[in-house]
Amino acid sequence: MNPFSRRTFLKGIGTGAIAGVVRPLAALAQDAARADSQKFGPGEVEISLEINGEKRTLKVEPRVTLLDALRNRLAFTGAKEICDRGTCGGCTVQVDGKPVYSCMLLAVDMIGRKIKTVEGLARDGKLDPVQQAFVEQDAMMCGFCTPGFVMSARALLDRNVRPTRDQINEACAGNLCRCGAYPHIVAAIEKASAKNA
Amino acid sequence: MNRFTFINAYTAGAALDALKSDDAITVENLNRKRPLGGGSDLLAEIKEGLIAPDVVVNLKGIGGWNGITFDSRELRIGATTTIAEIADAAEIHQKFAALAQAAHHVGSAQIRNVATVGGNLCQRPRCWYFRNPDIACLKKGGEGCPASVGENKYHSIFHNDAPCHIVSPSNLGVALLALDGKVNVTSPQGDRAVAAADFFRLPTREDPFRETTLRPGELVTGLSVPITESKSAYLQFSEKAEFDWALVSAAVSLQMSGSNITSIRLALGAVAQVPWRLPAVEKYLMGKSATDETVLSKAADLAVAEAQPLGKNAYKVTIAKTAVKRVIRQALGIEV
Amino acid sequence: MDAAWPKDRKVLSTEVHRLDAAIKTDGRAKYAYDIQFPDLLYGRILRSPHASAVVKSVNLEKAKALPGVKAVALAGGDSKNIRFAGQEVAAVAAISKQVADDALKLIEVEYEVRPHVVNIEAARREGAPEVFDGFGNAQPPKATRRGDPEAAFASAAAIVEGEFRTPVQLHTCLETHGLTAKWDGDELTVWASTQGVFSVREGLAKNFKVPESKVRCICEVMGGGFGSKFGPGVEGGLAARLAQDAGAPVKMLLDRKSEFLAVGNRPSTIQKLKLAADKDGKLTAFSCEGTGTAGFSGGGVSAGGGGGVVWPAPYIYTVPNHDVSISGTTTNGGAGRAFRAPQHPPASFGMESIMDMLAYKMGIDPVDFRLRNDPSEVRQREYKEGAEKFGWKDKWHAPGSDRGPLKRGVGLASAAWGGGGKGSKAEVVINSDGSVEVRCGTQDLGTGSRTVVAIVAAETFGLRPDQITARIGDTNLPFSGGSGGSTTSASVAPAVRVACINALEELNKRVGENGSWQERTAKLGMTPITAQGDWQPGLSSSGAGGVQFAQVEVDTETGQVRVLKVTCIQDCGLVVNRLGARSQANGGIIQGIGYALFEERVMDDGTGLMLNSNFETYKIPNIADIPEIDVTFLDMPERGVIGIGEPVHIPTAAAIANAVFNAIGVRVTELPMTPARVLAALGQAKAHNV
Question: Does the interface predicted TM-score (ipTM) exceed 0.95?
Fold first, then answer.
């Protein structure tokens, strides 16, 4: 007996789903309407990505990461390649509103997702409140980690307008700063949070 | 990274088709085609040059594999559900605290947002000999385990007669073992549910390549946990406060009558090649007071009675004892 | 007009936002790594996977033939003899990172693998393989002797002994080493991640035998150096060579693993120390027998030097009788390089640990013990003020006396740093629209040098810093030296001040002193004012101390150490930017926390390879490891500008180690103080060793 075949699982979604966690049924229906599979590469394929609200078309091999695509094929150099292994946060961007390591995602896997880079935060030439707070609190030294931190902090405040210090730690532990700007980064996030509320 | 073909699979059947492989257990068969969940581990393996798959099959588009559901009997979580979704689910915190806490300790926020249940259960070990492309080891088809006499501070303290001394890195695996959960698997031969204890496997001389009982071409579709009245907890001790692998972790699920334990499942993590259940400790604790310090100390001693630390990891034995005591206290809401 | 710093300062010594803060928050700041050209090629280096080997042959043909590969080169120099795993063998430039990676795999290298030694004990053993044939791995000792230490030990009231160990620490700059190189005919322009645009230029000019006037180095912003980025490095030379061969610009920024293996480190130390005092608690005798390893080399010219093993002992203390002998050990590891206060943090850890031991042995309060023995008047003040601010008297208790598994403790340690700095030149242009440009060929490592330039000019002209255009980081600008040794502000600020004073005199002469800045500059018409200034004495000085106090909490059942609080009292002359100075102090302390608790290069004896060349296992502090940090600057404006980047880093690890002793009553004598070492010190882990 299999307590977890796909059929029972789908049935489960109808009966006891947790709000906000489960994929919308509409999306599942869409999935079903598609072909069984879709193949890319191994050579270059043309894809479209939505970056900072704009559609961008580019050619990539499937092995090209989102970070490489952003930096070296589209000139979004705000996201930095520091470790290239998902350990430092320098490449943090938001995908569908969530902070992720763009060095550990494939560009071809980002089709249909909403990508936001640090270049897309400012509005009408005005810095985002998080960016402004980083400026005011001197929340950087060399600045190489800063775009990644800003993206993590922005995502945190979008979810939680008044984070505690522990919540800031959790949200930003995936971003490294070698200059040691952390105390001022905390101050900046708290300042931006105060403005938020 | 090497060049590979990328396939978006939208059905389980398509994924199995794309991953179809010769069934023989070889490094080649296990790695020529690989499934992709969040990619945190897979892409690292490819970038490091540990593997060079021809085909990468994306499972995230498979309908019905993402989500958290309950019925009266069990909790089910699909394979492509992210760790963040588990860590953020209030119901899981309430009823399956060990699982939520285990998820909470996975990686960093960025990793939890992409890492999947399937990937967490199937991720390869963090052993720094294994992860170094310039070092041959049993797991990669080489001779011997350099960790046995080398730098083994992060390695196993149990079952060290085994030919390989990695530790299982899966947080969820430890919680799942304590919660008596199952891993659901699909293969061209059909679907099956595997008890957590049978999902993870110890390395053998003949087959040091796999950490799980998955055969080439098989896939995890999700996990399920029975709904019980148990209280549970997961904790881990690391060198750093956040975003670090466990030196030792522990998970417990228990039921009480007053201060006495009436049922208990207890497991340690990062101490052996698999999540490490402690049946002797469970047996000892049955019917005893969970708030009695002497009892907890005896349980802690019993937990490590069969430890065989390597040259540089005896300290993990001490931490394992602490983990046993504290995870029980944590489950019962008692301060350190 | 007198160039002396004004007594009444409007901009200097206030909190000024760094000029480039905004562009660092939104991705506009362009690092060497962000430079783009339409025909840009990506450089990658093939490195030896063996710690010791001779390269018998290298076949580049297959790599060359790969479509998309535009140039291939051998590493050159002494690259046939491999002395550490990670040493450069060959390099490629290709149209994408992917093609460059593919090309590396096609390079065939035949190695004759030789025996290696990667750890000190193995390297000093009789019959050990020699890293350099014919030269023993034990280097000739540097010895100093004073008075009669044997007699002084014999008559001492109290003696303590101990062996202290510090690890090889890696700089781990977030922007890796490297540069983007572009040739136009015989002229070379490089965008480098560097601490010294002029030293990079010099290195490349020598390398390519072209006049320095034909080489330009630009560094607008850079992602951290910490002492490791003074020269072009092997990677910079290779980038320029590949660019020349390919006839296209090449970007060569190292991958993370290479950064761990090949571009410097802080050497390890093993310090056998002995210290004695008379019955009044005055130090009478000291001995130190030491070694350490800076890998295969202490850092050559291209690396910037400063990476040797030998540390100052008895460090900040004066001991009338002492015997010090330190002999470096050559191993098959990456070369040492200057790293934030080279040699001082290990010196501080050893000396302050043994000082603490003697204080406790004699029953003297650790603060009082320093007051009795530290000859520095400034630090005498810092001990007293620091103890007060930190709450030493309330927080101190008998070692290990907290009940329960979580035990708190406090400790302190001190620093000394020379610093100084001179030789910078600056130029100021005042335009008729009132705009001001200050030009100085220094560079900003993140220390805020660009803002320092603007602050000094703004103060002198009565403007705001954001009204100043500070041009730095370019060899086309007036000369300024490398940014190291905490010398930048002390070198740059006076030059800018003098240039601005000269410009102001010229302005006054031409348009008079009346009217607003705008009204006066408007009268300049077609001819802007251009004035130069050279560094001159009297505006800056050298010599800083600094004392830090730490409070920790140790979990004696897991060995985990958490730093709860660090109080830093730092003398610093005339503070230029109080906000930037605080950032730097925080940063120095946080790197010290890494040194104390997490950071350690792990070399495998069996394979000769570094096992933790990544951020997963070479652990640096993250946001959750940060304690409450309280920084107080002792302003001494009369001394002029003094750099503080290094002294703020020196004593942190030692203060934390002393706090751990106070918490648990057992001394952890080796850094980093990991759970493994803390539990070993507590003797709990040992019992389980079969």
Answer: yes
